[in-house]
Structures are given as C-alpha cells and as structure tokens.
Amino acid sequence: MNLEKYPLESKSHTTFEFISVGPSGRIRKIIVFIQIEEQNNRLYNLCFGDWDKTSHLPNDQIVSNNKDSRKVLATVAAAVLEFTKRFPKAIIYAKGSSESRTRLYQMQIASYLTEITNLFQIKGLKNGIWEPFKLGINYEAFLLTRQKSL
Amino acid sequence: MKRELKKKFVPEPSSNPDIPDYSKYPVFVKKTEEARATLRKYGLPKEFTEQRKTKAPKSKKTSS
C-alpha cells in the first residue's frame, strides 16, 4: 500500500506519535497499543487521539478538521504494521471514539481489503458475533492479527 | 477542618522522562476498559484463540 502517510516517531515499543499538518495547523497525534488483559499478553487495544494543548492530555473526541483523514488513517495503519512486526502474535482491538469514526475505520479497511487480508486476519463485531470482515456491513468494532503464515 | 482537594490526574512517570506513559491517561484507560468489557462479553473468534502451529521438534532416532 503506497499511501501517503506522515513520518511516525516510535516513542516506545507500544507508543507512536506523528504530526498532522493542514489548515488547522500542526496537530500532535498519539497512537498507543495498550494491553487489555493482564493474563493475556497478545490482546491490545488500539488507542488513538490528539494531544490537547489546553488540558495537556490526550483527547479522542477532538475534531481537528485538518483535511487529512486518509493520510492520518494510513499513518495509523503504518503504526499497526510496525507494532505487529515487533509483536507478530498480537491481537489488536480497534473501535473509533464515535460511531462515525468507527465507520471511517471501516471505510479505510474496505478500500484496501485485499492488501490488508494478505497481511492480517480481520474480524468485525456485528450483533455480538465476530465475523470475517465483509464489505457493506457496519461493524461495531474490529479485531485483527497477522496471518499465521507470515 | 481540612478541606479535601479534588485530586488532579497526574500520570505516573515512565522510565524515560521524555516519554509520557500514555496508557495511564484517563481517556485511554476508559477506552481500554470498554474494550475489555466487550471482549469479556463476546469473547474472541476461535481462529484467534487457536495456538499457532509450530513445527514439532524432530524426534531423535534412538539406536537399539
């Protein structure tokens, strides 16, 4: 996938940052993979948000309007690739901070489904059931892990 | 009488002072709690829980 993306700065094995640049200015973005269960070191939650300059805290509700959502999502995807290179057995849970953001994730996955499924097994949560990701279905959350053969 | 002050969230310092431990920030803690609740409720797909097949070690031939 030769998508335009921002250079990622790896802050630790589980934390990445990058700067989004657009009409709203330079916005620091944070991507963190947080272990979900202490007893299961394969399960990680993908957390993503802006650095809020006012509160000095990450915020996943800010609408930055920087007109670069595809580039931002491609950068998040690059972070997932980096993370799973280091932790190939990781299972990553992803859900947007709102329904519309989850939909954005879904649209991005749908646009590159062939490329993604070459690398990852991907499931969508629909009515309480994890099912293989299919086009045209609105999922509530996603799970992905590297293909076993890789 | 001592007045109780509302505790302001201060993340624990990470081992490297240049890198905040984002996993301790409330917004990400809350999101991870939600993820945990969802996964406890619905479980994981069975393909994700199966152990990856690893090559079995070659058994040594023993001469009798």
Largest sheet of chain B: none
Shape of chain B: elongated
Seen as an oligomer or otherwise, the chain set is heterodimer
- Biggest sheet record of chain A: 9 strands, mixed
The amount of beta strand of chain A, in percent, is 35-45%
What is the first-to-last residue Cα distance of chain B? 87 Å
Largest protein interface? A-B, 32 and 27 residues
The N- to C-terminal Cα distance of chain A equals: 17 Å
Shape of chain A: globular
Supply the helix-strand structural class of chain B.
Answer: mainly alpha
Residues in β-strands, percent of chain B: under 5%
Uncertain parts of chain B: 9-14
Task: Work out the helix count of chain A.
Answer: 3
Mean pLDDT value of chain B = 71
Level of helix content of chain A?
25-40%
* N to C succession of SSEs of chain B: HH
Strand element count of chain B: 0
Radius of gyration of chain B: 24 Å
- Secondary structural class of chain A: alpha+beta
Helix proportion range of chain B: 25-40%
Q: How many separate helices of chain B? A: 2
